[in-house]
Amino acid sequence: MKVQLSTIRLPMIGTLLDKIPDGTFVQGPIPGIGGPFHTAGEFFHPWALNTKFGMDPNRLQAACGPLANEIIPSVEGFKDAIQGLAESFSIANDGPFPLCHGDFGHNNIIVK
What is the mean pLDDT of the chain? Predict the structure, then answer.
């Protein structure tokens, strides 16, 4: 039976560990974040706590020049902003959740 990846909906946010013969999936924690999460809000709280911006403020200052005075406070306030919005961030807070992968290249898909 063919399944289009774009049609897969999951009951929780987490990693896929196994597929059960009835077509459902066993889900587990996301490394470094936890879970699986039953709502998007549950996911966004630990995600925001664990996210890291790619540049330290000194390097960001050098890269942004005169705009740094606006950009750096936004970067520094990002985690708190996400924490405050976590419960209302998603239009489907209670799922089901689409399959999502940061790099769906052909070299990152295994088909059995």
Answer: 86
